[in-house]
Every structure is written in structure tokens, then in C-alpha cells.
Write a structure and sequence with these properties.
The strands form 2 sheets. The chain has a 6-stranded mixed beta sheet with strand order 6-7-5-4-2-9, with helices on one face. The protein has a 3-stranded antiparallel beta sheet with strand order 1-3-8. Helix content is 62%, strand content 13%. The protein folds into 3 domains: 215 residues, Rhopdopsin 7-helix transmembrane proteins (Up-down Bundle); 73 residues; 163 residues, Heat Shock Protein 90 (2-Layer Sandwich), CATH 3.30.565. A hairpin with a 3-residue loop joins strand 6 and strand 7. By secondary structure, it is of the alpha+beta class. It catalyses: ATP + protein L-histidine = ADP + protein N-phospho-L-histidine.
Length: 469
């Protein structure tokens, strides 16, 4: 139980440090904290207190540890089902106002208060009145599990994290329900000692999820901070480089212009031609560094209310002559008005569509779909191009990383720029790709952040076409 105690409290700390503002993280952290409290009580009862009693008998210290054991045990038995059902409500995103959420939390707390007041006090053999507690604790566990399992995510890119969350949370919770609540209510005591196996599996799944697809957005948060710091470094670096090169290129232009005038005056056509080559190269250098600097400088968004469908269709329009044998399909619920910077969002989408068309090399399927969820709008751009393997997908948002080595004008800044635009709007960008199958990119707009409102009845418009170049 020592391992369970340390592991669960470590998980609680990771969850709360990752995003303490998230109610999902806070309540799941409480679940791990209360679960760890039960392991602490067992560790005190079976290890520390017996050791102290046998080797260094101190009645006062033993009494203190016994009181800690009692408090940890009671908080575990009462706190685990309570925090779990509230975690499930937050995770499912049950549509309640803040005042109603507080009322529900107080109502769910009532059985615990009544049990503390009216049932016998704690003792080591019967820490709680299991035959009474089971009647409200088990429904809490079952309701919470149903809420977690019925959570639906229309965003394919984060569906993996949902099932990782289910695998990490549900088996330990349901096994603990049986071993710590159901069986003791039939007089079968101390079965909680078998919880260690399922808790260990849950912690293992949590750690695996943390470093693969992510767990409740924690990996996304780590990646977000890493990418943000990288973009800041690139921004400052290119700004310095842009300034230095601009000054030196200015000098080159000044002196080459003098040289060209002299060559023309003295009738030296070969020298004029050589100087023209130098001037063209200087213009090219400045143009290249200016474009890099433009893409990496800090974005200042100018949001205004726009029709999201009109913005997307306006961005698609210039690409139609380039589609060749590419079939374009647009699925869009009409009437969504969002407060965004149309220039920046349009340019981000432009980069993504351009990458998709390049990846398909003239033939395939390109689909652009808007998915609506309770709290967010998800714009999916899906292509059937060459796709990327896991290593390439992991690097796709890194500045200057590109798989288009044949194009000297491609700087590998399109996706980092799109990512940065979404971050500026309080949203996110997710990539899912499979080599030889294609790529899906999701632009996630939280409704609250972009003031999304629906002005028309829901009408799904589907457009399919094949363009021949």
C-alpha cells in the first residue's frame, strides 16, 4: 500500500499542477488524493504504527498516528465516491450553471454529513457502517461511470485521450467499489488490500497516456509550452537577423548602384550584367528573410464578427483551379458567427489547404468539415495524400521542419503559424496522420472564446465537385 499511496498522490500533484483551473483536473486530482488517503491509512495501520509500537513505543506519537489513520480512512471512504461523481459530471460537461453546480455538490454531500453524524464512530475493524454507506456510494460510482462512458467527442484527434482516461480511471474505481464497499456490506472485510493491483494498472496507463496521446490535455499543455517557447526564440532570432541583413543589403544596393552607373558610363556591358546578378541576389536575400520574419513575428489579432462558413469558402475559392483530379467536399452547418481575426484565420487555413493539395499531387479527396460540440467548434481539413509517420507528425508543428525538401521557398512555417493563430484565439490545433493514408488537421475554436452564436436553423450543406485542370 505504500506504493499506492505515493503513486496516487503523485498523480494528484501532476493533475493539479498541469491545470489547476480545470474542474476536470481538480476533481480527478481529488479522486487520486482520497484514494491515496486510504492507502496511507492502510500503511499506517499495517506498517508504521506496528513498527513504532515494537521498536520505539511512544504512546503519544502512536495516538497521533492513529488519529491521522482514522482521518485518512474516513476521508477515503466518504471522499472517493463524492469526488468521483463530481469528476464525471465535469468530464461529461453536464450543462449546469455555476449556481446549480454548487447546489448539486451540496446535495451530493448530504449523505456523507448524515453518515458522519448518525453512524458509529471510526474503529479499525469497522471504519464506516458499510451496510448504510453502500446505498449511496455505489449509485455515485455507477452514475459517474455512466457519465464518463457516455461522453462523446466529435473531435477524432482527442478521442484517444478519452479511452486512455477510461482505462486509467474506470477499472480501479469499479474494483474499489466492489472490494471496499459492496463486499464489506456483506461482512467480507479487508478486501481493499487487493485494490493495489488495479490501482497499479491505472497508474501505469496514466503514465503511458501522459507520454503518448496525452491525458486530460496534459501532454498537449507540455507541447504547447514547448512550442510557445520555440516560437518566441524563433521570433527574436529572425527579428535580429532581419534587421542585420536589411542593413547590409541596403549597403549592397547603394554601392552596386554606383558601380552599375559607372559601368554604364564607361560602356562595360559585361560588368553591368554581373552587377545586375548581384543586385538580383540581394533582392532575393532580403525577400526571403522578410517572409521568414513576417511569419514568425508576434501576431496581433484584430477580431471581428464573421460568418465562419463565408470565411472558409472564401479561403477555398482561389484553390479551385489547382485541384485537378482532387475531389473537394465541404460539409458546413450554416449560420455560425464567430469573433475572430478573419485575415489570420484565413491565412492559417490557406496554409493547411495548400499543404493538403501538395500532399495529394493532383488526385485524391479533400474534405473540409465543421463539427459542433457543446463547448467548441472543430474545423477538420482531411486529405488522402501521402500522410506522415509518427515521427514526422510529432515534428510537424516545429518551426522550419518540412517534408517538402524540393521547394526552396518553403520554410516549414505554415503549420507553426496556424498553430500560433489558434493559440491567439484561445483555441488549439491537432494533427492526426498515417503514412500512405492521409492527414487530418483540426482547428478547435472554444465557443466561449470566439463568442460563437448560431443565427440560422441547423442546415447541413454538402458540396461535392471534381475539378479538372
Amino acid at each position: 500500500m505504500l506504493f499506492v499511496w505515493i503513486a496516487l498522490w503523485a498523480v494528484a500533484l501532476i493533475l493539479i499542477v498541469a491545470d489547476y483551473r480545470s474542474p476536470v483536473n481538480r476533481w480527478l486530482s481529488a479522486v487520486a488524493l482520497f484514494g491515496g488517503a486510504g492507502a496511507l491509512a492502510a500503511t499506517l495501520a499495517d506498517v508504521f504504527i506496528p513498527y513504532l509500537h515494537s521498536n520505539h513505543p511512544q504512546q503519544k506519537l502512536e495516538n497521533i498516528l492513529y488519529n491521522v489513520q482514522a482521518g485518512a480512512s474516513l476521508s477515503s471512504y466518504y471522499g472517493l465516491p463524492y469526488s468521483y461523481v463530481l469528476f464525471a459530471m465535469a468530464y461529461k460537461a453536464v450543462n449546469l450553471s455555476r449556481s446549480n453546480q454548487r447546489k448539486v455538490a451540496l446535495i451530493l454531500l448530504a449523505p456523507i454529513v448524515l453518515c458522519i453524524i448518525f453512524t458509529p464512530p471510526y474503529n479499525e475493524y469497522h471504519p464506516i457502517s458499510h451496510s448504510i454507506v453502500v446505498w449511496w456510494a455505489v449509485p455515485y460510482f455507477l452514475i459517474g461511470t455512466c457519465l464518463v462512458l457516455t461522453k462523446k467527442s466529435q473531435n477524432y484527434s482527442i478521442s484517444h485521450t478519452h479511452w486512455i482516461t477510461c482505462l486509467a480511471v474506470l477499472p480501479p474505481i469499479l474494483f474499489s467499489m466492489i472490494m471496499s464497499y459492496v463486499l464489506p456490506s456483506f461482512g467480507i472485510l479487508r478486501m481493499w488490500k487487493y485494490n493495489v493491483w488495479f490501482v497499479s494498472i491505472g497508474v501505469l496507463v496514466f503514465l503511458i497516456g501522459l507520454f503518448t496521446y496525452g491525458f486530460l490535455g496534459i501532454r498537449v499543455l507540455i507541447d504547447r509550452r514547448r512550442l510557445a517557447s520555440t516560437l518566441r526564440a524563433v521570433t527574436s532570432g529572425t527579428a535580429i537577423l532581419h534587421h542585420a541583413i536589411k542593413n547590409d543589403v541596403g549597403k549592397m544596393r547603394l554601392f552596386t548602384e554606383k558601380m552599375r552607373n559607372y559601368a554604364e558610363t564607361t560602356n562595360q556591358p559585361e560588368l553591368v550584367e554581373d552587377i545586375h546578378v548581384i543586385q538580383t541576389a540581394s533582392h532575393h536575400i532580403q525577400d526571403m528573410i522578410s517572409r521568414v520574419h513576417h511569419r514568425t513575428e508576434d501576431l496581433v489579432i484584430q477580431p471581428r464578427e464573421v460568418d465562419l462558413e463565408a470565411l472558409v469558402r472564401g479561403t477555398i475559392k482561389p484553390f479551385e483551379p489547382l485541384l485537378q483530379q482532387i475531389k473537394l467536399e465541404v460539409t458546413f452547418p450554416q449560420g455560425w458567427l464567430c469573433t475572430v481575426d478573419p485575415a489570420q484565420v484565413g491565412e492559417a487555413l490557406n496554409n493547411i489547404i495548400s499543404n493538403a493539395i501538395d500532399a495529394m499531387k493532383g488526385s485524391g479527396n479533400l474534405s473540409i468539415t465543421l463539427h459542433e460540440a457543446k463547448r467548441e467548434l472543430s474545423l477538420e481539413v482531411r486529405d488522402t495524400g501521402s500522410g506522415m509517420d509518427k515521427a514526422q507528425t510529432a515534428k510537424a508543428l516545429e518551426p522550419f521542419y518540412t517534408t517538402k525538401s524540393s521547394k526552396e521557398t518553403n520554410f516549414g512555417l505554415g503549420l507553426p503559424y496556424a498553430y500560433y493563430v489558434m493559440r491567439k484565439h484561445g483555441g488549439s490545433l491537432h494533427i492526426r496522420s498515417k503514412l500512405g493514408v492521409g492527414t487530418r488537421i483540426y482547428l478547435i475554436f472554444p465557443k466561449r472564446n470566439v463568442n460563437a452564436v448560431r443565427k440560422l436553423p441547423e442546415t447541413v450543406v454538402m458540396e461535392g465537385r471534381t475539378a479538372h485542370g
